[in-house]
Amino acid sequence: MILVVGIPTEAPLALAIEAAEAKGVECVVFNQRHASYNDIVVDYKNGTIGGTLYAWGRELPLEEFTGVYARMIEVSSLPEFKPSRTQAVDRYAFGHANFLTDSLRKWIEVAPCRVLNRCAPMSSNGSKPYQAQLINRVGLKTPTTLITNDPSQAEEFAQEHGEVIFKSISGVRSIVKKLTPDRGPDLAKIRHLPTQFQAFVPGTNVRVHVVGEQVFATEIQSDAVDYRYGSREGHDTEMVPYELPADIHEKCIALSKALELPLCGIDFKRTPDNDFVCFEVNPSPAYSYYEQHGGQPISSAIVDYLTGSH
Amino acid sequence: MKFLILHPGSDPLATTVASLLDTRHPGEVAAPTLWDLQNAKRWSHEQACGKTHNQLILPNGTIIDPSRAVVFNRLPGVTVTHFANSTPEDKQYATEETHALVLSWLAAFKCPVVNPATHAGLAGPYHDQLTWYMLAHRAGLPTPEVSLSSSLRRFPRPHLVPVGGHILGQQVAMLTEPSTDETLSLYIVGDQVVGNHPITLREPIKALAKLANADFLEIQLTRLAGANPRWVFTGANPVPFHVSDEAILALVYLLESKLGAQS
Question: By C-alpha distance, which of A204, A281, A190 is closest to A242?
């Protein structure tokens, strides 16, 4: 029996639920929007963690779950708990939902079963240059990067590398933009907040999803600087399955293990001379976008991982 | 510079350690605050070919180069002070960006750091209580029984009591074993356990610090009530605020020994 936690209509969860149904795997869906109608107890004693999830009339011992796929959102972001002009937030229901979600998260963090993914390891993505250091440790290349609050150093970096992009250092507002000459006057603003610049890496985007030991690579054909937002700028995007070189394949698995993220989305550029440069590891990948366009059975691999089949 | 002490400002422990080290190593101690880092004249954090190169020049012109130093890291988190008139969203963005930079900067240090930064915490490991209990159990420390319950009616645990007092009605609760008022705070400083503690727990306490990858950790023990009162682990903090004089001295010696080991 597997547990899926989050908003079940969200595409990555919906595909996993569908895959579990197709495989005849019992899948308990914990819809966060219904949290205030359900209950939980998490019991810790002498290094053993257990408990019970009470959902829609069923008492489900936590020990019986072989795996958990969690894409939890903040309770305060749920529509039920957004104040409106006509209705105040039910504070009791909010408190209950918050506690239940928090308890579930705490259990997930230490649960003895397979988990995609635990919360603490996911925070490595909160600092791109920090994560880049971890990526380098498994032998993968990352782009030449400068974080500075000195406009003249940023200008020198741009002159040295020709094409340069800038993007956030953290996971917030993570949109990649090219540093074009008309941005010159804006460079003075970096005095107030160090900014991340990267040498532009030419080539083709490759997104790799790792699920346990399984690796799915998708080549993305797009002219946009950041293909995820390409449609906003009028660019078309096409996705096709791609076979990685064996050493990159192995390093992707090693990276997933090193980051303790058995499910992750790794962003690469394949350069014209067939080199692979890694940009970042997404700890909560919206893999459905790639599965639906590229056709790889990622959701099936997720269910197999959670049931211990691979 | 032999010692770099990073702290958020008003941190009596950092100030005392800096002052003691400065007495013993005059002119070899730098103790910039978070404000100094945020207002640095120059931040440069470069990554190329798998290597990281840092350059930091503080507002007073001091060049921070920790490559041959020992770092005492007391930066529990980042708050930005120079975006006071910005929108909450922009202020939050500036905070996240600064945190991300400081984490990467600290993680790139090749010198000894007490405590090293990781994504689990800027100044050492921050875990929630259940994670600490699991770690403590692995280290051989006794831990109390705990329940997190959203319904005491549906899941009664009559042998446990609510943490932090009474519960009215069916409110959600964290429950634990009844305890006495007796508590102990002790410190792991390198290989030393400083402060009163049951001798049988010394090795497990050291093992916990190793599992947590922390050279400096405050440990809380509580004596349970009942027929068989025993000391159990109830918490750990990598950035304790008030520390005994004995622990402060142990810290100074630890930082000096790390400098010696480095050279």
Answer: A204
A112 touches chain B (CB under 8 A): no
On whether any CB of chain B is under 8 Å from the CB of A46, the answer is: yes
Of B50, B103, B133, the CB nearest to A44: B133
Residues in A closer than 8 angstroms to B96, CB to CB, are 126, 168, 170-172
Domains of chain A: total: 3
B172 interaction partners in chain A (CB closer than 8 Å):
95-96, 99-100
Residue B133 near residue B143, CB atoms below 8 Å? yes
| Pairs of residues, one from chain A and one from chain B, whose beta carbons lie less than 8 Å apart | 175
Task: Kindly determine whether residue B44 and residue A136, on different chains, have CB atoms separated by under 8 Å.
Answer: no
pLDDT in tens, chain B (263 residues): 899 999 999 899 999 999 999 999 999 999 999 999 999 999 999 999 989 999 999 999 999 988 889 999 999 888 887 787 888 888 999 999 999 999 999 999 999 999 999 988 999 999 999 999 999 999 999 999 999 998 888 888 989 988 866 555 556 688 999 999 899 999 999 999 999 999 999 999 999 999 999 999 999 999 999 888 899 999 999 999 889 999 999 999 999 999 988 76
What is the domain range of residue A112?
Answer: 2-116
Least Cα separation, residue B14 to chain A (angstroms):
25
CA nearest neighbour of B217 among B1, B195, A46, A88: B195
- Is the same domain home to A239 and A217? yes
C-alpha A11/C-alpha A24 separation (Å) is 20
My answer on whether A214 and A283 are in the same domain is yes
Backbone region of residue B98 per phi and psi (left: phi > 0; alpha: psi in -120 to 50; beta: other values): alpha
Looking up tokens 């990781």 gives B118
User: A193 and A217 share a domain?
Assistant: no
User: Which domain covers residue B181, as residue numbers?
Assistant: 129-237
- Is A126's CB within 8 Å of B101's CB? no
